[in-house]
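Sat 14:20. Reprocessing the chain from the morning session after the first attempt stalled halfway. Input below, unchanged.
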Amino acid sequence: MLSKLVVDIYTDLIEVCLWLLLIIGFVIGWQLYGVIGGLGGLLVSALFGSLSFGAFLVFNDIRAEVIRVRETLTKMENQLYHFSK
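Finished this time. Tokens:
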């Protein structure tokens, strides 16, 4: 139970960090080169964030999908067990 809470908090923390990274990249680019710099900073920070933090979010999505499939299979096994009685 605690491990699921830690994983959920970690996922939320990564998402907040990604949003902050985008905002900071946009602001720094805007201050240096104006509108084009802001868009460039946004693009660079999005690429950096996806390369550095994206794998963790993909692993979390895979984990959630495995849990969903396991629950579905368990439900189907229970239905088959009750049907065969």
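The mean pLDDT is 91.
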